[in-house]
Structures are given as structure tokens and as C-alpha cells.
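hiii so um. not sure if this is the right channel but i have a protein structure encoded as C-alpha cells and i wanna go backwards to a sequence. like what aa goes where. can anyone help
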């Protein structure tokens, strides 16, 4: 470890409820409060390089509004404050930065995250931010902290856009991706109270982890834009962290938030073997693609503690899956979930209502498909044209979205989110279809009987009752009537 340095660094996480629009804060929190792995990773990384004066402030977990955190920010008196932003949460990040600027005017406020990869210059039109990090954060953020420690200018740092005191912006050179992510330490779990986090369907206490970076697929609705280059964390390091979380933090379940955890059979076998050799009992759940799982992989993961698998299905017809560039089929989906069910793994599927060129028949079949493949849980969303996606590009070209909505959203610090309307569907129809999907899926007698018949059935039914807060808001947003076959118009707001 390097010689201890005096720069004080504060990492602040905003309310994740901001990412769950248009749900209320109460309903969003039923879905869960999770630690920020990116910020905790950065905290561990700078500490390993000699910056020992760090603090992690989770406004969501501590149920604090930005103005209620004034004293904490003022008392810590950071030299550097780090924030991370997703697009939907951008207004909340601005609110925090404005509060920090008022309470600690001298602090260098750094903002990074997926949103900055798309709209870095527009984000820096807000004078409460000093510098934006584009892409992976570790090496770039460390250089920023080193320059602050040395009293040097931040202009020209690779992987950043810097706002000079006179307001002019200077873009640094691109920073090459690190070839390996194994030299980064595990997140700074000692900075959080693990008991502050909860989720409707998870064992408590739980933690979250990420073992890969990058995604080689190009699904048309996905805004994960960092890198096509896949980088894997060594399975030994992954299991080291799992062991720490189980034995030192008492964690009972780990959520792996990798875009696709199940890439590489050899990697899955090694991971499963190491977990069993260590004698770990912590359960875990994963995200996967239906075309990356088979019986061998799922059986190995089940033996290692896999409790639940989440897979994006999105559409119930092969025609619409092709339009989405999902690169899977209905047959692959049915097979993957059938194997998971047979291996005793809980299943959750994700579905999308209202993609461009979808027909009423596509939507109806998606709803029917979700209810017919034996899922334990299902989530339905109305398609949102997020920045950097094919869906957004097509929506702009066809006039479903006016201009570059997300650029204006960034510059203006928010706005009413656009709900897509096409030549086929109005926004009201899409919300009605979503409500219909939830009611049809969760009110099925066979689903309730199946959950009740399990040893943990009572707990699962209680989880379903807890989710009634979310479902009730979805239903209230729509008056279920006969859904017209055709709707006209271009855009509505929700």
C-alpha cells in the first residue's frame, strides 16, 4: 500500500427510487434498496492506493433527503465528492451535487456512471459538477484524487471532461480499458451496514456482486454502453468475496448483477467447485440469457447454492424477438426455464410491452407466453426508449420521441418521461396491457397453489402480498376497459 494521503474522499449514493419512475417512493422501496457496487469499488480502490480518509454515504439506505444530509456533508468536509448517475436518476444526482456545493464549496465534485458515457458535456452544463468520468472509473478517479492531493490541475485527465473555472470544457484523451479487472480489490463492505438493505424476494441480510464487465450482445432496448469487450473476474477472487460476506458480514444471499453471469461453461464449473470446496452455505441468484444455460450449468450452480435465476424474455413471438435483436427464440426460452424448474431453481422472467412494430397479437401472445412457461415471478414493463439504444434511434426517426429528448432532459435537469406511442398503440393502451399482464400472471390459481405447496410457500405468498403495493399502483394507473385495437398519436407523458 502507498503512503497514507491526506485527501478526504466522500462517496454519495442517491435514492434508487428515482430509477423506478413512475412508481412512488413507497412502491419503489418495496422492490428493494441495494448498495452501490461502483462507489464501494472505487472506495476500496483508492484506499488500496493510500487514500485512507473515505466515507460512503447512502442516502437511500439511511432514508435521507439531500437537504437532510447537510450536516453529514459539512462535517466530513471532503476534498473530493464522488457521485454516480444512471439516466433516470440524473435529477436526483443534480440535487445532491447542489447540496454538496452549498455545504462544501471547496470540494471537487466528480460524477461518473452510465449516463456520463452518453451525455458528459451536457451534464457539465450544471456548474455544480467539476469533472465527468467517462467509462470505467477506477484508474481515472484515482488520477483525479492524486492530482487533488498534489494540488495539480484536473485539466486533461484521460477519460474525463473537465469544466474550467471560466466554464469552458476540456476533454481529456480517451483512456484505454484495463485488460484485467483482477487487480481491483473487492468493494469496501466495511463502510456499509449490511442490515440497512432489503428486497422483497431476497433472504436478509444480502449483498450484491458483479463478476464481469462488458456485454457482447446488442439488444435493441438495452442502454448498457460501456464496452463490448468482456472481462471476467477470476472465480477464486469471486469466491473469496463470497466467503468474506458470509463469514464476516453474515450474508445469507448474494445477488450477482452481471448482465449475463453464465458465460463460459469452464468458468461456471470452476466457480461451482470452489464454492463447494470452501463449504459455503450462502445462497445466490443470477441474471442470465436463455441461450447460455443448459442442464449441466444449472445443475452445477444449484449444487453451489443457486436459489434463483432471472432471464430476460421480453417478447412472446419470434418475430418481435428478431426486431429487438434479442438473438433468442421462444423454444430456447421454454427449454431454459423448464430445465431450471426441473433442477429446483426459482425462476423470474422479464417482459416488455410496446416495442416498435409490435402488434396487438404480439402483446397478447407475450402475456399468454409469460403465464404458460411455469415461472415463479414475472416483471412487465412498458418499453422506454433509453439513450444509446436502437429503440431510441428508431423512435427519433419515426417521430415517436421529439428530437433528442434525453439530451434536453440532461441539460434541463429532468422532465416528464416520454411514454412511447406508435401508429398502433396509445400510451393508455400500453399501460392497460401491462396491468392485464400483471393481473393475469399473479392471479392464476395454479401459481398460488404451486407456491403454497412448497416448504417455503408461506414466505413466498407473503412476498406476493408485500408486492401488492407495487401491483396496486400499476392497476390504479389504468382503468381496465376493453382495450381498443388501434390507437393513434405520437407521444404522451407519464
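sure thing!! here u go:
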Amino acid at each position: 500500500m502507498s503512503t497514507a494521503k491526506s485527501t478526504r474522499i466522500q462517496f454519495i449514493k442517491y435514492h434508487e427510487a428515482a430509477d423506478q419512475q413512475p412508481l412512488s417512493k413507497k412502491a419503489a422501496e418495496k422492490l428493494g434498496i441495494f448498495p452501490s457496487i461502483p462507489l464501494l469499488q472505487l472506495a476500496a480502490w483508492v484506499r488500496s492506493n493510500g487514500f485512507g480518509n473515505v466515507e460512503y454515504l447512502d442516502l437511500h439506505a439511511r432514508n435521507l433527503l439531500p437537504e437532510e444530509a447537510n450536516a453529514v456533508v459539512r462535517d466530513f468536509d471532503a476534498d473530493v465528492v464522488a457521485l454516480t448517475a444512471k439516466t433516470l436518476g440524473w435529477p436526483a444526482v443534480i440535487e445532491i451535487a447542489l447540496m454538496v456545493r452549498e455545504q462544501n464549496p471547496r470540494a471537487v465534485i466528480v460524477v461518473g456512471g452510465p449516463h456520463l458515457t452518453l451525455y458528459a458535456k451536457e451534464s457539465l452544463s450544471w456548474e455544480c459538477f467539476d469533472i465527468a468520468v467517462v467509462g470505467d472509473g477506477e484508474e481515472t478517479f484515482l488520477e483525479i484524487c492524486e492530482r487533488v492531493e498534489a494540488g495539480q490541475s484536473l485539466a486533461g485527465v484521460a477519460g474525463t471532461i473537465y469544466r474550467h473555472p471560466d466554464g469552458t470544457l476540456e476533454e481529456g484523451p480517451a483512456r484505454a480499458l484495463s485488460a484485467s479487472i483482477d487487480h481491483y480489490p473487492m468493494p469496501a463492505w466495511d463502510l456499509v451496514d449490511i442490515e440497512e438493505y432489503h428486497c422483497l424476494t431476497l433472504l436478509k441480510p444480502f449483498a450484491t456482486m458483479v463478476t464481469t464487465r462488458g456485454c457482447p450482445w446488442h439488444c435493441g432496448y438495452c442502454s448498457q454502453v460501456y464496452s463490448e469487450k468482456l472481462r471476467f473476474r477470476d472465480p477464486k477472487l469471486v469466491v473469496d468475496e463470497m466467503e468474506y460476506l458470509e463469514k464476516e458480514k453474515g450474508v445469507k444471499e448474494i445477488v450477482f448483477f452481471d448482465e449475463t453471469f453464465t458465460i463460459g461453461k469452464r468458468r461456471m464449473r470452476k466457480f461451482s467447485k470452489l464454492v463447494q470446496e470452501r463449504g459455503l452455505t450462502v445462497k445466490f441468484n443470477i441474471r442470465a440469457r436463455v441461450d447460455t444455460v443448459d442442464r449441466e450449468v444449472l445443475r452445477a450452480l444449484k449444487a453451489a447454492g443457486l436459489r434463483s435465476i432471472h432471464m430476460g424474455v421480453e417478447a412472446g413471438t419470434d418475430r418481435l424477438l428478431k426486431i429487438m435483436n434479442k438473438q433468442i427464440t421462444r423454444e430456447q426460452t421454454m427449454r431454459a426455464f423448464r430445465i431450471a424448474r426441473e433442477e429446483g431453481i426459482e425462476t423470474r422472467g422479464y417482459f416488455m410491452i410496446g416495442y416498435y412494430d409490435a402488434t396487438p397479437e404480439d402483446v397478447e401472445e407475450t402475456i399468454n407466453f409469460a403465464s404458460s412457461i411455469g415461472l415463479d415471478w414475472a416483471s412487465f414493463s412498458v418499453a422506454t426508449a433509453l439513450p444509446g439504444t436502437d429503440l431510441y434511434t428508431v423512435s427519433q426517426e419515426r417521430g415517436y420521441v421529439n428530437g433528442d429528448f434525453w439530451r434536453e432532459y440532461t441539460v434541463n435537469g429532468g422532465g416528464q418521461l416520454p411514454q412511447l406511442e406508435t401508429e398502433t398503440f396509445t400510451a393508455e393502451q400500453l399501460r392497460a396491457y401491462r396491468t392485464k399482464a400483471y393481473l393475469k400472471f399473479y392471479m392464476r390459481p395454479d401459481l398460488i397453489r404451486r407456491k403454497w405447496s412448497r416448504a417455503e410457500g408461506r414466505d413466498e405468498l407473503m412476498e406476493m402480498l408485500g408486492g401488492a403495493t407495487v401491483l396496486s399502483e400499476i392497476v390504479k394507473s389504468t382503468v381496465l376497459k376493453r382495450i381498443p385495437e388501434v390507437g393513434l398519436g405520437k407521444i404522451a407523458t407519464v
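oh and The first strand starts at residue 9 and ends at 13.
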